[in-house]
Amino acid sequence: MVYVLSVLIGFLTAFVGSIAGLGGGIILVPSLLLLSQLLDSFSWAAPQNIVGISLLVMVFTGLSSSISYMKKGRVDYRSGRIFLSGAIPGGILGSWLNQFVSEDAFSLYLGILMLLLSAMFFIKKKEPIVSQPVHSKGIVRTVLIDGEKFSYTYSMAAAVSIAFAVGVLSGMLGIGGGSLIVPAMILLFGFPPHIATATSMFMILFLSLISSSTHIVLGHVPWQYVWLFIPGAWIGGTLGAKVNQLLKGKTVEWILRILLVVIGFRLILQGIG
Question: Which of 10, 34, 151, 176 would disulfide-bridge 134, Cβ 3.0–4.6 Å?
């Protein structure tokens, strides 16, 4: 039972997470928290162990989906490196802080965060400029999506600051950072949704690698279970990236909204219950 459920959870979290650029942590973490309360066979799944597994699994999710996105030219490497310069130190700090968070508080904080992120999508966002040059003192990026040119701009200081906060929350809650950085990219900086999701998965690969290493050092990774999630995560990440490329940008945004609301409410109920 543990084997079947673990492979299935690994696949679903990576598949859905890759479509929306989330990495899958916002699905894997709540799923294991719920199973730890329902099944004795998952009694080992304490919050610290769940976060350790989630971040380690997301290394494989990020790698498999990034390979697919790279082949299609959807990854903004320069922006990814800039955001990572803030996210990596934040991830190390967050991983260390995780050991001080109780299970109920963990669920409650993560649930509230998910609802806040969903609400952000109803705020008027900064739209990418189509087929026009951008004049700005900030960093300017231009990409080609299905023959159409998009330009967007952002401040390096703002990007690094936001990425640091994302890294802290990622390492502490095991959500990979995609559920935080994708809305920021789309809403604040005007990234096209397809570029935001692809670049997010590229970042998640490295951020999860660093954060999971910290959890390994702290002894938070139950190795006898973590290997059960990896095969499903690899397949799910690859398929999710392919499905993402077939969807319209608005569809990707709505998938992200719905996931955040459903999971957010479930976590809050679990945290206060």
Answer: 151
